[in-house]
Structure formats: C-alpha cells, structure tokens
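[Amino acid chain]
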Amino acid sequence: MLRLTKRTEYGLIALVHMAELAEARPADAEAEVISARAIGDIFPVPKRMLAEALKHLQQGGILESTRGVRGGYRLSRPADQISLGEIVSALEGPPTLTSCAGMGAASSDGGCEVEPVCPIRSPLARLRTGIWTLFEGVTLQALADRSADPAGLFSATG
C-alpha cells in the first residue's frame, strides 16, 4: 500500500504550520523563521526526525534556513507555489508501486525477469503517473486550509 514515511508526515506537519504562520502575518511583513525545537514544542514529534525532515526540505529548495541563536526555517516561496509532489520528492522521492518502478525482485543482470511479457507494468505505470499528477496538483496552501478539500477529490460530481 502506498504510504508516506514518518519523516514525510513530520515534514508536512512543520510545513503546514509554517504556511499557517505565513497566512497570519501582514502581507508586507517578511516571514519569520521558526526552529525545529519550537515546532517540536508545539507538536509531539521526535525533534531529531523533524530536524532531519527540515534539512531535506531546505536542500530541496522548499525551505530557507538561517543559522545562529535566532536561526530556523521559513518557506522559500508562498505556500500556494509549493506542491505536495515537490515536498514528497524532497523527503522520499517519487512514489513507486512495483519493483520495476524502483527496487525489488530483479534478475542478476539488474533487469526484471518478467519485463518482456509483464501484463501489469504499463497499467501500473499509468496509475503511478496519475498519483504523482494528483500530488503535483495539491499545494501546501490547500493542505493548510483545513476547511477545504485539498484536491477537490471529495466534491460531488453530479
């Protein structure tokens, strides 16, 4: 089953909190930084794993960091310009559903033994692409808006 890692969950918690803080500040005010410790004091998550997630998000260009006593992290751009796909990719890479889309049961030469006749490779590749397209279509702002359906998935269609 497709499942996000704990590191990704903790990263998303921190990012949603930062998006909420950014939403609450005046439009002309510069975003303040928040430390991993401060986030960990608000949410009961392991501070070491949270710090690791924040570091990966900074390396992925989603966060900016400031060192020092008053250091911490802030969003590198507005929350409506950061996609869930970008976040997941920075923390764990694109999702894989099958071993041929990642690591798994491969022959000794590195290729899949079933690939030439595999009946599921193409349909599952399309499914993976669809999931990734959904991830790319959901913004951090949509996740932070708790009153809204982030992807329009649960809207009545007729």
